[in-house]
Design goal:
With 397 residues, the protein is α/β, with parallel strands linked by helices. The protein has helices at residues 6-10, 20-28, 47-54, 70-82, 97-109, 125-133, 153-158, 182-195, 253-265, 271-279, 285-307, 332-341, 377-395; strands spanning 32-35, 92-95, 115-120, 136-141, 164-170, 198-202, 228-233, 246-250, 322-326, 348-351, 353-354, 368-372. The chain is globular, with a radius of gyration of 21 Å. The N and C termini lie far apart (49 Å). It binds pyridoxal-5'-phosphate. Pyridoxal-5'-phosphate binds next to helix 5.
């Protein structure tokens, strides 16, 4: 009998997409569904991107360099300079989004069965990336009541085993919206030095930080620059998810040499999208200020609405465009499904992501949901009102 690999068996399906058939059914029945379950921003991609692509006039669509187009690498280098991060050209390799940057990084640092510590709840696709690379994610549990900040150094150290290869963080964090403090990053740096492991910083939400808070990159901690790997992307920064452009950067020469071999094996990233991405370095400061203001407004709508729902626990998220909230409900997955199958207000309902799929520890997150605040103000206000009414109706069932 034809059979597939062990890896195929272990590969998880996306937990966020599990409820999609119920949303489709609701829509078929004439119900409007407000999607707070996915992180696809509605912000316009800067016109510069499309202009550059329209101006493409080479007679042959050739392979690009495996490292990525030099002009794009240069454009990332300039971008990092503005972030006070000094990556040289040979310390940047262009990838198919942040996703490929993470997959290649995991493939480079560990052998099958090796472990990577990640604060949970974490971006659910990390499970898929680790599975593709043959690595295992071990969770560092964080709590809603503590704003999902990191536990003590001693606790994190107690999770490290001889085959732990790295600690990976999403900062600002999807799904929690937590922005790690400089103190937390320094602590991770000390642990990485003491145990001689890598630190992977998934910083694809770097610009999305609110209330004037300052973002600290792992690259801002001088002592650990030789062991930091930055995974990055233009998907969220410029609302260009479909371009599939990102990069992996590190000052660790052996690591970068390995990534280059992987990059060569997949030849190159799409030539035309790289051209579009190169132009984005010229995006104005005002664009980011506008976008930031918009998301901060949305964050406030969602957070204030959550505060007004009796029994909800959540700290104010400071970054990215997500929040994880504990609901006064035992089974958030059943609730999320019920919202789609049995509940509506004036023929409209709200779709949320049950948070259990963002945890590696069985049983955790069962009473939590993740909300993405990616809708415009009016829609978000209605969606949160429906959610509040839904929680009340579900609890009184
Ligand atoms: C934390 C995090 N990392 C990485 C990615 C991957 O993004 P992309 O591959 O589009 O760059 C996402 C996408 O949602 C994300 O939320």
């Amino acid at each position: 009998m034809l059979s597939l690999s062990k890896r195929a068996e272990l590969m998880p399906a996306s937990p966020i997409r599990k409820l999609v058939p119920f949303a489709q059914e609701a829509k078929k029945n004439g119900i409007k569904v407000y999607h707070l379950n996915i992180g696809q921003p509605d912000i316009k991609t800067p016109e510069l991107f499309f202009e550059a692509i329209r101006n493409f006039d080479a007679p042959v669509l050739e392979y690009a360099l495996s490292q990525g187009d030099i002009k794009l690498i240069d454009s990332f280098k300039k971008y990092y300079e503005k972030c006070n991060i000094d990556f040289e050209q040979d310390e940047i390799i262009i990838t198919y989004g942040g996703s490929e940057a993470i997959i290649l990084s995991l493939m480079a640092i560990g052998d099958p069965g090796d472990e990577v510590l990640v604060p949970e709840p974490f971006y659910a696709n990390y499970n898929g990336f680790a599975c593709e690379a043959g690595l295992v994610i071990k969770p560092i549990t964080t709590k809603a009541e503590e704003g999902f900040h990191l536990p003590s150094k001693e606790y994190i150290k107690s999770l490290i085993k001889p085959n732990t290869r790295a600690i990976m963080i999403s900062n600002p964090c999807n799904p929690t919206g937590t922005v790690y403090t400089k103190g937390e990053l320094k602590m991770l740096g000390e642990i990485a030095l003491e145990h001689d492991i890598f630190l992977i910083g998934d910083e694809v939400y770097r610009e999305f930080v609110y209330d004037g808070l300052e973002f600290t990159s792992l690259m801002h901690i001088p002592e650990i620059r030789d062991r930091v790997i930055i995974c990055d992307s233009i998907s969220k920064r410029y609302s260009a998810c479909g371009a599939r452009i990102g990069c992996v950067c590190s000052k660790n020469k052996d690591f970068m040499k390995t990534i280059m071999k992987f990059a060569q094996a997949r030849l190159c990233v799409a030539t035309i999208e790289m051209l579009g991405a190169t132009s984005l370095i010229n995006t104005t400061k005002e664009y980011f200020q506008e976008v930031n203001k918009e998301y901060q407004k949305r964050r406030d709508i969602v957070y204030n609405a959550l505060l007004n729902i009796p029994g909800v626990v959540c700290e104010k998220p400071m970054g990215a465009f997500y929040v994880v909230a504990k609901l006064p409900i035992d089974d958030a997955e059943d609730f999320a499904k019920w919202m789609l199958t049995d509940f509506n207000v004036n023929n409209a309902t709200t779709m949320v992501a049950p948070a259990a799929g963002f945890y590696a520890t069985p049983g955790l997150g069962k009473d939590e949901v993740r909300l993405a605040y990616i809708l415009k103000e009016e829609d978000l206000t209605v969606a949160m009102d429906i959610l509040a009414k839904g929680i009340k109706a579900y609890s009184n069932k």
